[in-house]
Write a structure and sequence with these properties.
Pfam families: ParD_antitoxin. The chain has four helices and no strands. The protein is mainly alpha-helical.
């Protein structure tokens, strides 16, 4: 195991280096009030840098847009069966069946 000692860190460091090489830089201007807010979020929520915080916000916005698109697609699709009490009871039964296995 001693010969693998330095190898354990190689892959994570390599992966981080590869990720950093693929990133682009973007500079943004913020009013002092927003900059202070970002700094507070970074310090209070465990982010290492303001870039990490902003990346997380962008990822969440991307997820929100995907969910919105899926909801709109579902709302505009043809209804296959009545959505009534029987439908929801059946849905609950199926959900309980999956969780109880």
């Amino acid at each position: 195991m001693s010969e693998l000692k330095g190898t354990r860190l190689f892959l994570p460091i390599f992966a981080i280096a590869a990720m950093v090489l693929r990133m682009s830089t973007m500079n943004i201007s913020l009013p002092d009030q927003l900059k202070s807010f970002v700094d507070e979020q970074v310090a209070g929520r465990g982010y290492g840098t303001s870039s990490e915080y902003i990346r997380e916000l962008i990822r969440r916005d991307q997820d929100r847009l995907v969910l919105r698109r899926l909801l709109l697609d579902g709302a505009s699709s043809a209804q296959t069966e009545p959505v009534d009490e029987h439908y929801f009871n059946s849905l609950r039964d199926r959900a309980r069946g999956r969780h109880s296995k």
